[in-house]
Amino acid sequence: MKLYRFLIFCLPFLAGAKEDDDQEENITCDPNVHIIGGTLTKSNGNAVDSILRFQCPEHTYPYPVSETKCTRSGHWFRLTYRRTKPICKEFRCPMPVLEDGMIRPQNLSYSNGETVFFECYDGYKLQGSISRTCMKNGRWNGTITSCNSGSQYCPHPGIPAGGRKSGENYMIGSKVEYVCNNHLVLVGSSVRQCLESREWSGREPSCQHKNSFDTPEDVASAFTASFTNMLGMTQTGEAKQPASTARKITLAKDAPLHIYILLDASESVGEANFNEAKNIIKNLTDKRGTNIHAAFKKVLEMMVLSKIIYKDSWAKTRFVTILFTDGKSNMGGDPRTAVREIKDFIFAQNKSDDYLDMYSFGVTDGANMLELNALSSQKHDEKHCFILKSTTELIKAFDDILDFNQIGDLCGVADENVEKSFRLRHPWHVLMEIPGIGSCSGSIVSPEWVLTAAHCLKDVQTKLDIDKITVQIGDKFSFSHVKDVYIHPQYNLSGLLDEKISQFYDYDVALLKLKKRIDFADTKSRSICLPCTSETTRAIRKPFPGTNCRDHENELLPTTRSVPASFVKRDRGRSETEAYVTIKTTEALRDACEANALHAEEYKHVTDVRTVVTDRFLCTGGQDPVAEEVSCKGDSGGALYMEKKRRLIQVGVISWGVINVCDTVNADKNHARDFHVNLFKVLPWLKERLGKIMTFIN
Ligand SMILES: *[C@@H]1O[C@H](CO)[C@@H](O)[C@H](O)[C@H]1NC(C)=O
Ligand SMILES: *[C@@H]1O[C@H](CO)[C@@H](O)[C@H](O)[C@H]1NC(C)=O
Ligand SMILES: *[C@@H]1O[C@H](CO)[C@@H](O)[C@H](O)[C@H]1NC(C)=O
Ligand SMILES: *[C@@H]1O[C@H](CO)[C@@H](O)[C@H](O)[C@H]1NC(C)=O
Ligand SMILES: *[C@@H]1O[C@H](CO)[C@@H](O)[C@H](O)[C@H]1NC(C)=O
Ligand SMILES: *[C@@H]1O[C@H](CO)[C@@H](O)[C@H](O)[C@H]1NC(C)=O
């Protein structure tokens, strides 16, 4: 298997330092500029060079300009001398165009919510949408409608609303060209060619208002479709998947993918969300101005270099660039030439355009759609260029894009959005009802396997008992049933009866095999990562191969300090919360933590704590330096886990606690501690049971 690489390069290109040293007289611009129906911001009050931006509510855009600057002559550029008072105008959809058919109703433009209907003349077949509705961003929903006579090789390519087409010949190799009517910007392909496959090359054009923006929903669906298609192909190597197969992001394990993220950190992006990244990147560069050209040049340089570094996998390597910008390159040459050079380089390597995807995200009212479109890939039925109204919208879009249901079965990935439900943020967690025992927790470790505590299953002996176990999975709490139960062979609750110890929890782990594979997408659930698996090596971004189990242990349970971890706790009101604890891994802390075990009712007469607390346990809880949470009864069997590189890895199974603080009034919390079976100590058993479905490393 080839090395799996997922490289992210963050490229800086930066940042206009103001040349504001002029100490002349104090020139200021008119402070009384307003916009009807909207608000405005000024970057530096009414002083020279201050940038004034208008903001308008949804459905509307600032007219006549969306931003202006205070000039040295004391005027707001292109504003003060105009008669038009700034106003937020409603977006209107341009008139659709249909050859060989009729459109009803006819009008020069249409407002949000209006619907038009299309009808083809006799002998022509209608393609595309039979009706389209004007959306709030001044665009029609659906796809271009055309009337197809069937007499030519390619079908009629359609004409975008608000645009014109030239070229009447639809034979193989013939081209049609598009232009948009005044003030509208062409997005998509301006030239399309009739291909042997009876399709038109490139992407459906549309004529958009220059202030129009993509809704987060549009971006999420279009970007996901395109991007996941590309990732899908990475996985299957050379074969292009037919568009009809499910498009699922499965991060490629066998083909390298290089992603270049270009972050425009110029002043004009200027939103608080970029500030942090900006500050770091700013330090790396000299402050000159937005230089998209230089950024793409840098990408080209890195691509050339990667050919040398990754010689062996080069033929399979695919490239993605993602540009975040306001689309205004104010210096450093035309970025389009750099983009062309990148494309030329890729094609010169005998790579088809499947190997290169260039996405652009514009994020302010003033983003230049025309320029951004030129910097993006034009692919059949895929969208690579997006304009969003604000960074808030961008974040919303990416939230939708990073819908974790779509990324195959990577372990330990969870939704990080705090507004999402608890189960979406803890998708591996399950709750089990076991006859005779009550409830216990568990963790999904694969679509078929749930890891839990053995003591939860102590009364489960017959097939009938197994059939009665229910496992509640995912966001919708769907039920799963259990096919088989595998208890660790060394677990023996009564193993120390001779020493008058009624309960002994060594090796308190069990695996449940489910009757049916869990559908992760459908149930919105997902597995957690297990230590010493190759999957976890990748998750914590360690070299693969070249990382061993000991490296995992050093990384996850270092003995030099106590280790922060979490578990899922269900309070008496039955709602689930995340409890934060620290695992006492240093010798001194561990000893102190374990000593409290002798305060447990069952262990009062035990003299050596090591009799009941074997090497298999991890200890958490305590009051110092902060009071830590301890588990309650139904939490048993759940995962003790931690986050590394934004992936979640289970290190323990919740086994027992010293004091039941949940059901005991005025419980003495001073000695409350929890003990968890350390997964590093039961690896041979895990490997024996799960070795066929995941790769354990030595
Ligand atoms: C310009 O403005 C600054 C600060 O507002 C003030 O200190 C200074 O006296 C002003 N200069 C002139 C020439 O008005
Ligand atoms: C065209 O649109 C305008 C503005 O929405 C409307 O007043 C007018 O009635 C429409 N004309 C037709 C023929 O529908
Ligand atoms: C366009 O939007 C209208 C109104 O929301 C909806 O009824 C219609 O199905 C949509 N058409 C397409 C092709 O998406
Ligand atoms: C930028 O560099 C300065 C001086 O070299 C340093 O003090 C500062 O912490 C750096 N800022 C960031 C965000 O790296
Ligand atoms: C591309 O293919 C041609 C013909 O098969 C070959 O001559 C050329 O060397 C190849 N170029 C690269 C960079 O692999
Ligand atoms: C558990 O331990 C007890 C006491 O040592 C022993 O008698 C019993 O056979 C053990 N049970 C199992 C299943 O090993």
From TrEMBL:
PROSITE patterns: SUSHI (PS50923), TRYPSIN_DOM (PS50240), TRYPSIN_HIS (PS00134), VWFA (PS50234)
Domain Peptidase S1: 410-691
SUPFAM superfamilies: Complement control module/SCR domain, Trypsin-like serine proteases, vWA-like
Keywords from the named record: Disulfide bond, Glycoprotein, Hydrolase, Immunity, Innate immunity, Protease, Repeat, Secreted, Serine protease, Signal, Sushi
Matches recorded under Gene3D superfamilies: Complement Module, domain 1, Trypsin-like serine proteases, von Willebrand factor, type A domain
Cystine connections: C120-C147, C180-C207
Required cofactor names: Mn(2+); Mg(2+)
Active site: H455 (charge relay system), D508 (charge relay system), S636 (charge relay system)
Gene Ontology molecular function: any one: serine-type endopeptidase activity
GO CC terms of this entry: cell surface; extracellular exosome
Protein name: C3/C5 convertase
Phylogenetic placement of the source organism: Eukaryota, Metazoa, Chordata, Craniata, Vertebrata
